[in-house]
Amino acid sequence: MKQIAIDMDEVIAHPNQRFIDWYERDTGVRVEEAELFRTGKKFYQYLGEEFAGSIRGYLFEKGFFKDLPIMEDSVEVIKWLDQHYEIFFVTSAMEFKNSMEDKYDWLQKHFPFISWKQYVFCGRKDMISTDYLIDDHVSNLTTFKGQGILYHAPHNLDNTKYPRVKNWKEVRTFFEGELREEGIV
Amino acid sequence: MKQIAIDMDEVIAHPNQRFIDWYERDTGVRVEEAELFRTGKKFYQYLGEEFAGSIRGYLFEKGFFKDLPIMEDSVEVIKWLDQHYEIFFVTSAMEFKNSMEDKYDWLQKHFPFISWKQYVFCGRKDMISTDYLIDDHVSNLTTFKGQGILYHAPHNLDNTKYPRVKNWKEVRTFFEGELREEGIV
Fold this sequence. Notes:
The structure is a homodimer. By secondary structure, chain A is of the alpha/beta class.
């Protein structure tokens, strides 16, 4: 069975939504995610140099990763993928020590059908060897030896090197193609 | 630069010592580690079926992994290895959610010269692709595609398939041989 590594942030979980909510809580100003997509920026880049540090600091606060919104259709599609592939959740948790337990709980809650044996919390991802990696960061795909798949996000709009998936329905379509090509379905 | 994945428990950290200490705290009975080596058993196997569950339960208690004793010479040898290889600490932390922050702090304390980017907390290790893996569990070496190195422990005495290292001085000797063979030193 082939293996798929799936990133968490901006792929199955939605920290951008939390950035937007906390920023509104602290300043009263609501930034729409469409605005990030229009400008091709991460939230803390969008606000400009003078805010970048303090907004990025949200990531280090206890609770930032707790109960993050989940990407639409991700549960259903991963349930389907799980029948044909071995799934690993591979997330860069190490920069944010506070995130680890929250991420663990989040996975247990939303994906109880995937064992903790299939979680990988890491710093870098270049030593992960699976057949596929679905990730929103081009830098992770560049060092990956298997087939990289780019999950559409404001900060990766200009990349054309990897197959791009805009939502989980498109992930399913991509892998239906792969399975057909291999004669599995 | 070649990459070495290094396991934590019973390789750089010493949970067996904690098992022994907590068991003595709870029962007044001191089991020497030499006894585990003599019988070739994990601590909770050594005590017999009727104790196995409750003793293994220590692993799930908050604090079990906090300030674990460190294996002799591991800091000095890993400092030396770090000059010739990329080091990753790869540990099965996922079964014990409570262990993650303690393991993180422990690595930061004892190995401040290795970046958090080089930590991997996982369930299984078969998707880790480095050149070497130093581990005390034969099952992890069996599924590993690079060169496995078995770190001597009571529960692996009968294995002869992998090069065995009995302490960190022997790890250094092993890699001095590898570097010589490659003409690097």
